[in-house]
Amino acid sequence: GAGVSQSPRYKVAKRGQDVALRCDPISGHVSLFWYQQALGQGPEFLTYFQNEAQLDKSGLPSDRFFAERPEGSVSTLKIQRTQQEDSAVYLCASSPTRRADTQYFGPGTRLTVL
Amino acid sequence: DQQVKQNSPSLSVQEGRISILNCDYTNSMFDYFLWYKKYPAEGPTFLISISSIKDKNEDGRFTVFLNKSAKHLSLHIVPSQPGDSAVYFCAASAMIYNQGGKLIFGQGTELSVKP
Question: Mean pLDDT over residues B46-60, rounded?
Answer without folding.
Answer: 95
